[in-house]
Each structure stands twice: as structure tokens, then as C-alpha cells.
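Page 47, continued from p. 46.
Same chain as before, 694 aa.
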Amino acid sequence: MVCRILLLLYVVFAATGAWAAGQAVTTGSIIAEMVDFDRLCEMPSQPYKTLQFTSYDRASNLPGGPNWISNRDGFGDSPILPFEKMLREPNDKGIGEYLLCEVNGPGAIVRTWTADINGTLRVFLDGAEKPIYDGPADKFLHRPYDTFIAESGVEAETLAGTFYQRDAAYCPMPFAKSCRIEWIGNPRQVYFYYVQIREYKDKSTKVTTFQSKDLKTHATEIQRVAEVLRNPEQSVPTTARSHAIDIELKPGERSAAVELKDMAAVVRLALKVKAENEVPALRQTVMHITCDGWDSAQVQSPVGDFFAAAPGVNPYQSFPFTVHEDGRMVCRYPMPFEKSLKVEFHNMGEQTVAITGDLETAARKWDKKRTMHFYARWRVTHDIHTPPNLDIPFLLAHGEGRFVGAASLMMNTARGTHSSGTWWGEGDEKVFVDDDRMPSWFGTGSEDYYNYAWSAIDIFAYPYCGQPRNDGPANRGFVANYRFHFVDDQPFDERIAFYMELLSNHENEDFSYACQAYHYGRPGMMDDHRVITVADVREPKLPGPWKPRAYRGSEGAIYLEPENLADGNFESEADTLWSEGELMVWRPDGVGDTLKLSFPVDKSGKYEVRVGLALDNRSGVVSATLDGKPFGFGDANGRMNLYDSRRTMLRATNSQLVELEAGEHVLELKFEQPAEGKEPFVGIDFLWLQPPVR
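Result:
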């Protein structure tokens, strides 16, 4: 079915000519690009550059110089206002008017994002006196199409999770002559923003400007694209050829699993790695995919990291990648080759591994002027200590190509339990394209690039963005973020340099930052890839034991070990994920069984009372009371589901601010429901008493 979709897209574009040079760009044609893998494999027929307008800190004005890694980028305290210019001085209420962006010539808005923004936006296309949008800034940046959805035939649920992904929106709005966006708001309040605009290089490019009726005009295409984004993993038709992968490698062995002599493209790659210890096997089994006899393989990556959710198996579904519960991992990025293809695996670990799966190819013409190879070259930097903060290089390449995605795969050794004391991602993306002296993309935070906000700790997955791993507590442990670029891709004619700042709210010790840059490159493109070494692929393991640190959002916190608070003897499990290296195990007798944790309070006052609990595939549902009363634990019903099928995580529970007198208090856990097919199990790591933070 994947191939059928690709072939159908090709037929549609070939029939309409919408993709070809000289044909008009429309709202519908760009919407179709949102699920068009094939176009990524070639240089654009209508050349463009993707621009990015954001609230980045304007003090960062000299690459590598003073203030290059600054962070006053939308909080309302910027000494240099992050706008193109001031249109009207603030009034006595602090409300002014500012030019957020202006692009002259043909183009299209392709992505918007905000964490939070006050005020209103006015969006003018083609110099019109009346704006196409005039309303709340937050609404336009989060849900641009909502204004035009009435009577369009497009349902709100069609856009949710497809065109609207987490805190970003992918809602194409093309324009023939110009785009101008004005912000009316208070710059002393929060105003984070991203607006990405495709600027066509040929000023004569034909573009049909977005109109309010476009959602109705293109309703069928919107529905089709949303459905493909929701269901990218489907069976491959008989028109594709399948090549089995079945290989076993002893430590140190390297061998080819597939070798082809043909002109075609890989349209689907599915792999599964089996070993006694799965996590190191996925990091230490390195895949090399070589097209057309290149001396250096275009794909060089640990198998697990290639699928953007490492370390280990972390199930999720995006548009180009899927990781299944059973460990099977699927890639849908097409990989064209003109003459030959070789897929090799190198076991750089100390255990025998077996790799099974299949690689599926379909006929594809190689255009010597436009077709490109697919690249995914992994790199890692271990043992990072900060400050000073630094730029992490993802990709430095010279030649022609197209940047289509990135993943950050990190080990965060922070000892906090609150996001403000564990947050790694204040750093911005900086992307230099061709002759840029300043980045074409300059962001406002790593999570902003990855389409979320405010140091979020939850596991989530959308077609283009996600966080498939985040161990906890807060942002501590192993963390994986991904973002894939379809309508917001970045073509380059001469060079691209993609950096991501590592800027944390805390000092780092032994931080590990692996990254993956996904891109296409014309023959002759060269990048700065480094050979992957045995030291690079050392076993992913948190150092420990660790002890929670009362810092920033947990300043003044009191941490207590649960085995000292409960009567009786309890098992413990050792792992560096847990505080002090051990997790207390409670095995309830059944539903309704309770466990009392008696703890002292030395000083009367207000406290949040939080519990560090394990989430894994053994854990069930619990509720809790404090001195016999509800206190904000868990969900609206006072319950917390601790089950996760594949991940092992540590989460601190919710709590209201409650008044506690000096003396003994009792937090009582109640077992509500076991995991399906499992014996009752609850893992308790710490009790956290948090007074108000000044």
C-alpha cells in the first residue's frame, strides 16, 4: 500500500503537472506535498528556500561571538525586541504594533508554532488592504485553518494530529506577490513565535494566492492527506520486490545482508534485532547502506538510533518511521540508487546478534540532473560537561541537497526531579544555508524546534514530531526527540550547516548527545561525517547511583526513601534509573490492598507531597490519600495508571499545595487494578516534600 500511495501521488502530479516547473502552485498542491515522499528525492523543480521568522534573542548577532548562545527569546524581557521593526510605539498599556515578518515575491506559509503569545496578528497577502486573518495571535500560530473551516466541509478532527501537531501547525497558505504579518501586543509579556515561509527563488513562479474558500475547494485533498498521515504503515503491493534480510553476526563481524544491481529505489525497510541484551545490541549493531559504489556509505548509523527512538525499543508511529511493540522497526524514506545497493551490518558489541527483516524496492528512474541519494549519518559526543554551553553540529555539508529531518538522542545526567532543574533544551537550532552569514533558521529552544514547549515530559508521537523516550523524573535519563520536514524541508545549492545548542538549566556532567541528520544529496555532495568507533557505541547506561538534588523548581525539597517509611520487609530492584540505585517493590495482595508511608514533617507549613513511582509493563493502577484525604494525586479521579508496555520510566506524581502541621503524616497508596495478565506490582522510588519555591 505504501508503494501504491507513492505511485498514485506520482500519477496525480504527472497528470496535473502541479509539481512541474512553470505550473501554478496552489494550496492544494502544497497540501499534497505533505505526504509526498518522492519529491524529497529530487532537487525542487521550482527552486525555493525555507525562511524562518522567530522571536530568537537578537543579542546573538555574531556567529561564535559574545552572546551567541543567549536565551532572552520570547519571555517578555528582551532588551532588543525580536521583530523586523516597530510600527507603532507602545501606548500607556504597553501595547504596540510590530512587523513580525515581510516577504516580497511568491511563496507560502508552511509552518507556525508558539508556546504562548499575547496579542493579535494581522496577516496580509499580496498587499491586500484587508488582512486574510485578523485575530488572536495564539489561534493563528496554533490552528491557522480554524478561521476558515466553517462551511468548508472539513471537520475539526480531520486537522487534529495531522495538520495540527502538538504546538505547531502545517497549514499551507501560498501567496503570489507578498506576505506581511503584523503583531499587536505587549512585548513585556510572553510572545514566542515561529513562522516558516517558503520563498521561491524565481520571482516569476506562478502561485495562486490562498483564499478563505480554499479549505472547501481542497476539502477532498485535505481529507486524503490527513488519512495518509494517520495511517502511514500499510502493506506493500505486489508491484514492489521484497528482499529478505536474515543474518547473524558474532562480536566484531561485518557482513552484507542485501546486494542489488539495478536502477530502483528502496521504498520500505523493516528490521528487527535480536540479542540476549537488546538495548546494547541496538546501539552496537551499526548499519551501512551504500548506493552506487560510494566509498563511504550514505547511511551509517546504529540500527536503533536510525529509527529516531533510541536507546532500546520505544514504540511510536511517525510518517517516515514506525517502531512496533515487538521490536520491528520500519523506515519509509525512499532511497534511490542508479546502479547498485548494498546493505551491511557491523556488530561492534560483545554479544552475538541476529538481524531479520526485509527491504522492498520499486522501479524508479534516475534523473542525472535532479535525483539524490538518501543520507543518515549518526554522530555522538560523550562525557560533555557544561558550562560552557556549546553548539552541537548535526550536519555540515557542501554541495546540493535537501534537509528532511533530525533526531536528538541524549543521556541527561541531571539530578533534579523538577523540569526546571533537569531541562536540557533551552538551546536553539541554527541552520546556515548556502551563502548565509547569519542562520536562515534561528530558533528559540530545542523543544520549540521539535514542536513542543515548556520542557514537557510526556511521551508523544505525531507524523512529523515526537518524544518517544523520556525516562524521568522530569527530563532526566535517556531522552529522544524527532522532527521530520516535508513541506518545511530545506533545499541547499551549495552548503548547509545545522547546529543545535546544548543549553541547560543546570550544570551537566557526563552528558551524552547523539544526533541524526536525515537529508538527500546530489552526487558530489560531501559532509563532515566521522567514522563510528567502538567507544562511540558503548553500552547506553546511566551513571549511578544518583541522589535527587533540591534545585530550582525543587529548591528546599526534602527527599525520603520509602523503605524507611513503610512497615515490613520489601524487595528492592537495583538500577541506576532509581534514586540511590534501588527501587522499593510493593506486591499488593490484590485490588484494594493498601500501603502506608508514614513520614515526619519538622516544620509546619504548606507542602506539595509527591511520590516517585515506576512505570513499566508490570505496573498497575494506584490511588492515594494524604492523612485520609484527597490531595491532587493522579488524574481527575485520583488514580494513576503506571503501565507502559515497553518503556521503564520514573514519574513524580501530582500534588496540591496542602497545609501540614509539624509531626507525623501518612500517605496511603491503594492498589486499584493490575496490569493485564500480570500479578499486582508497584515500584516506589522516593517521597518528595516540596515547600513553595520563592
